[in-house]
Amino acid sequence: MKALLCHTITDDLSGTGLADIDVPAPGPGEVLIRVRAASVNFPDILLCQGKYQLKLEPPFTPGMDMAGEIAALGEGVTGFTVGEAVCGGARFGGFAEYALVSARGLQPKPANLSFEAAASYSAAYLTAYVALVRRGRLQSGDTLLVHGASGGVGLAAVDVGKLLGARVIATGGNDAKLEQVRAYGADHVINTRDGFREPVKALTGGRGADVVFDPVGGDVFDESVRCIAFEGRLLVIGFTSGRIATVPTNMPLIKGFSVVGVRAGEYGRQFPDRGAENVKQIWDWARQGKTRPHIHAQLPLEQTLEGFRMLQNREVVGKVVITP
After folding, report:
1. How far apart are CA 256 and CA 228, in angstroms?
2. CATH topology assigned to domain 125-266
3. Smallest Cα–Cα separation from 260: which of 234, 228, 227?
4. From CA 47, how far away is CA 38, in angstroms rounded?
5. What is the residue extent of each domain of the chain?
6. Cα–Cα 20 to 30 A to 297, which of 27, 181, 281, 311?
């Protein structure tokens, strides 16, 4: 089968490319999926660069989110049948014609979602849910500031924030993309080009944002400290800017806010019961049509690295989906 293979960790992704490899056989508790769609997430890129918290020994195939049909069941797997349409997340393996997934990570594909939409869902919406509900304690009526709002995770946070009744302020660096985010549901949009501290304070009567969703880090984190409300929660999602920010501890002391780390997958591993509740909730929303994963582009497997570069160049609104 064809698969995207990272055979060498390199910063420029030159060690990652298409290869022919054997179709794997499912072991106990595993399911072999014929992949119909897999979405690109920023951690897929970081894995191939050796910059993610999970370190894999090459060769490996990245790809966290996928949807497809069951091709084979491993020993002990119950509740699924060969040919069934399924979706869900794994830590790697999705950018291939076939992928092995733990049965615990699979869901029956909602009938109202295409394979492409289903593959775009799990990582982004689980991150948004764990961040806003479990870690950020977002309440109806709160002001939510979402940075990197046009990206897959950012747009999911806008979607979940509105579903939970928050007033959403979305930021980004491109006016055209921000207008798409506004049309998607954000109450206000701010281009970070000229700073966002003063506009956020103006929109909140000087109080600041109750919850800040920050997958960007760097200068964006630094400025967020200046426009967060007393008892606010500054959620650290990632560092797409490339710089891991620091904060003088007198700032959270004086302003009474919390800096809260978010790792959705690890949260589920630490608290399995709550993790199962998280997964159930986001997929219930999907089946009820309450959430709206947005697909920016669909690319063939041969163009997966182009999808990576689209994310790196901040060209994407929502998700890029690979269709083997």
Report:
1. 9
2. Rossmann fold (3.40.50)
3. 234
4. 16
5. 2-121+282-323, 125-266
6. 281
Q: Please give the torsion angle defined by the CA atoms of residues 151, 152, 153 and 159, in that order, rounded to the nearest 10 degrees.
A: 100
Give rounded-to-5 percent helix, strand, coil for the chain: 35, 30, 35
Give pLDDT tens digits for 192-250: 998 999 999 999 999 999 999 999 999 999 999 999 999 999 999 999 888 999 999 99
User: What residues form DSSP beta bridges with 5?
Assistant: 17
How many other CB atoms sit within 10 Å of the CB of residue 1? 16
Q: In the structure encoding, which two tokens stand for residue 272, read together? A: 């399995």
For position 219, what pLDDT does the model report? 96
Q: Give the position of tokens 């069951």.
A: 70
CATH number of 2-121+282-323: 3.90.180.10
| Amino acid (1-letter code) at residue 99 | A
CA distance 111 to 133: 26
Q: Give yes or no for residue 89 having a pLDDT over 80.
A: no
Task: List phi, psi (to 5°) of 107.
Answer: -130, 145
